[in-house]
Design a protein that fits this description.
Number of helices of chain A: 15
Structural class of chain A: alpha/beta
CATH class of chain B: Alpha Beta
Largest sheet of chain A: 7 strands, mixed
Mean pLDDT of chain A: 95
Strand content of chain B: 15-25%
Number of helices of chain B: 6
Helix content of chain A: 40-55%
Radius of gyration of chain B: 15 Å
Oligomer: heterodimer
Strand content of chain A: 15-25%
Order of helices and strands of chain A: EHEHEHEHHEHEHEEHHEEHEEHEHEHEHH
CATH topology of chain B: Pyruvate-ferredoxin Oxidoreductase, domain 3
Helix content of chain B: 25-40%
Low-confidence stretches of chain B: 187-203
Largest sheet of chain B: 7 strands, mixed
CATH topology of the largest domain in chain A: Rossmann fold
CATH architecture of chain B: 3-Layer(aba) Sandwich
Number of domains of chain B: 1
Shape of chain A: globular
Number of strands of chain A: 15
CATH superfamily of the largest domain in chain A: Thiamin diphosphate (ThDP)-binding fold, Pyr/PP domains
Chain lengths: 427, 208
């Protein structure tokens, strides 16, 4: 049914349509509305045959999901930010054991300094944990990806993270078509586990493995992700047939076929990028964009095909791999190895800094003029940075950096908490 | 595209206002997007929310920097925060205030707007009288419909019914209707015309 609602509410309804049998979660901003929504659906009886388990921490949430999944239950949880770090050990176990748990990540930065707003630092920190990672561009895609995630994860016996930009999507009201129960039931069969803990047929799951077998077990996880590279587009095509819209798949291209400059990004910023592409196309610039939906497995071949003809690729990244630059661009260079395509990483939107069309346009122009650095930072206030560097040069103990920067900004008339408005000033 | 920015303080229903406006837009068959500013939302702190209305899909996710309309839910923000930043030359400004525009010290902004594009309404008082609580958001949406004409009052009423429990919704609707009537009737303009102005381009609608 087509409706106007908050992203979190739509996601909760979508997860409920997938008939999870165990939901366990610990609330954390900006994921809270999703698990509250699911709690209401369970309590009101709308979501039947599902146990909602309140847990004392994210570590417990993932541990309960592991136990539930190992017993053959369709298990779901959601988290964000510090929460995903707190459950990190159990996250590796879920994938190592091959348990098809689905988890929503309401993408948020990681402290210190503490910050509740959106970027991709949290899910990127767990990119190598063996989970499939899908990134939603809109709330419609977030709804659709959850349905595909259960199907995909259970087909391969792998856990799936559905990454949804915190606040920007989770707290946005927009139109969403929430499918019917019949549609979802027809697409998503009952969970038939590939392994199950059963007292009648006892097995050990998670035995200690020495050097003689560990590499093979690890390699099998990689092999399953390579299988996912084939299955993800198949499931997206089947989804299109059943639901009548494009959602999911490895990547989405936009006006990129003849583009000399292609912008690559994950998640909701792709919407803003498409608007910039349209503006620049109207000015005669040969520019397009590619949204990566599946970051793990990384669609190297599909990306090489979509980007190989471009002179340059600008990767807009919402996470910083401190000490090198971008995670996505780093992976992308591997996919484009041996080609002449130049790859630029633009680190943007950290901690909720607004990514504006005007700033994106400027940076794309710089790239086209061959003036863009290999790694750059969108709308970084270098004056503030340099002031702090100067303090650190002059004094051994200049005081905490974050607090000093807030004082500088307040002195310059820039309001604290301007957040989304970035250096545009307080509103 | 019609873009609305709403300024207020935590606890005044600033985010809910944008959400209701988006629901009203959806009810009219438009594409609508509402989202909060990503700032502190503690009680009393300045809060901003945004709503875009369009006749096709809305893809951009950046905050609204050049609004077509501003709703100021708390007049104490007028001189604390740069609420008028980026306002379109023919934009609309609706202020929750029991004092007339002339008394708010924003004559410069009022002077450069077309007649009938700025109004003050005592929305908090109206809310207290109808709803029993000082939450001016729904009231202001009623006035917004009358001032701008971009939205039907009945769409906002339907949105209010979606957001609140029936009893509370009806009280908010009564308040929104009164606000609509005050703005629409205040300058003798037809409902939703929104163009007729007072003597100095400023329309007053002060609640009793």
């Amino acid at each position: 049914m087509l409706k106007q609602c908050e992203g979190s509410v739509a996601i909760a309804e979508s997860v409920a349509l997938c008939r999870p049998e165990v939901i366990c979660a610990y609330p954390i901003t900006p994921q809270t509305h999703i698990v509250e929504g699911l709690g209401l659906l369970v309590k009101s009886g709308k979501l039947k045959s599902c146990e909602y388990i309140n847990v004392e921490s994210e570590f417990a949430a993932m541990s309960v999901a592991i136990g539930a999944s190992a017993c053959g239950a369709r298990a779901y949880t959601a988290t964000a930010s510090q929460g995903i770090l707190y459950m990190a050990e159990a996250i590796y176990n879920a994938s190592g054991l091959g348990l098809p748990i689905v988890m929503t990540v309401g993408n948020r930065s990681i402290g210190a300094p503490i910050n509740i707003w959106n970027d991709h630092t949290d899910s990127m920190a767990l990119r190598d944990a063996g989970w499939i990672q899908l990134y939603a561009e809109s709330n419609q895609e977030a709804v659709d990806l959850h349905i595909q995630a259960f199907r995909l994860g259970e087909a391969l016996s792998l856990p799936v993270m559905v990454c949804v930009d915190g606040f920007i999507l989770t707290h946005a009201y927009e139109r969403v078509d929430v499918p019917s129960q019949e549609q979802v039931d027809a697409y998503l069969p009952r969970f038939e586990p590939r392994q199950v803990v059963d007292p009648d047929e006892p097995v050990t799951i998670g035995a200690m493995v020495g050097p003689e077998a560990f590499m093979e077990v690890r390699y099998l996880a990689h092999a399953r992700q390579m299988q996912a590279l084939e299955l993800i587009p198949e499931l997206a095509a089947e989804f299109r047939g059943a639901f009548g819209r494009d959602s999911g798949g490895l990547l989405h291209t936009y006006r990129s076929e003849d583009a000399e400059t292609i912008v690559v990004a994950l998640g909701s910023v792709n919407g803003t990028i498409k608007d910039v592409v349209d503006e620049m196309r109207a000015e005669g610039v040969k520019i397009g964009s590619v949204a990566i939906c599946s970051f793990r497995p990384f669609p190297s071949a599909a990306l090489a095909g979509a980007l190989g003809h471009a002179a340059r690729v600008v990767v807009v990244e919402k996470s910083l791999s401190v000490g090198i630059g971008g995670n996505v661009s780093h992976n992308l260079k591997m996919a484009l190895a041996g080609r002449a395509t130049r790859v630029h990483a633009v680190i943007a939107g950290l901690g909720g800094r607004a990514i504006t069309m005007a700033s994106l346009k400027k940076v794309f122009r710089r790239a086209i003029e061959d003036r863009l650095e290999a790694v750059s930072f969108l709308d970084l206030n270098m004056e503030v940075v340099n002031r702090q560097l100067e303090r650190e040069r002059l004094e051994r103990r200049p005081g905490p950096a974050a607090e000093a920067i807030l004082r500088d900004l307040a002195g310059a008339g820039v309001g604290v908490g301007a957040g989304a408005n970035g250096k545009g000033g307080a509103r | 595209m019609f873009e609305v920015r709403i300024h207020g303080r935590g606890g005044q229903g600033v985010v809910t206002a944008a959400e209701m406006l988006s629901v009203a837009g959806f009810i009219e068959g438009r594409w609508a997007q509402a989202f909060p500013s990503f700032g502190s939302e503690r009680m009393g702190a300045p809060v901003v929310s945004f709503c875009r209305l369009h006749d096709s899909e809305i893809r951009a996710r950046e905050p609204i920097t050049a609004p077509d309309a501003l709703i100021i839910q708390d007049p104490t923000l007028l001189h604390q925060v740069r609420v008028f930043d980026g306002l379109a030359p023919a934009g609309y400004v609706l202020i929750n205030s029991s004092r007339p525009i002339e008394a708010l010290g924003i004559g410069e902004v009022a002077a450069r707007l077309p007649k009938g594009h700025m109004a003050a309404i005592a929305a908090t008082e109206l809310a207290v009288r109808h709803v029993g609580r000082p939450v001016p958001n729904a009231v202001l949406l009623g006035a917004f419909c009358a001032m701008t004409g971009v939205m039907k009052l009945e769409s906002v009423e339907a949105a209010i019914r979606q957001k609140f429990r029936p009893a509370l919704a009806e009280k908010n609707i009564a308040a929104a209707r009164e606000a609509f009537g005050m703005i629409a009737g205040g300058a003798g303009a037809g409902a939703g015309a929104g163009m007729a102005g007072g003597e100095d381009g400023v329309r007053h609608a002060e609640a009793v």
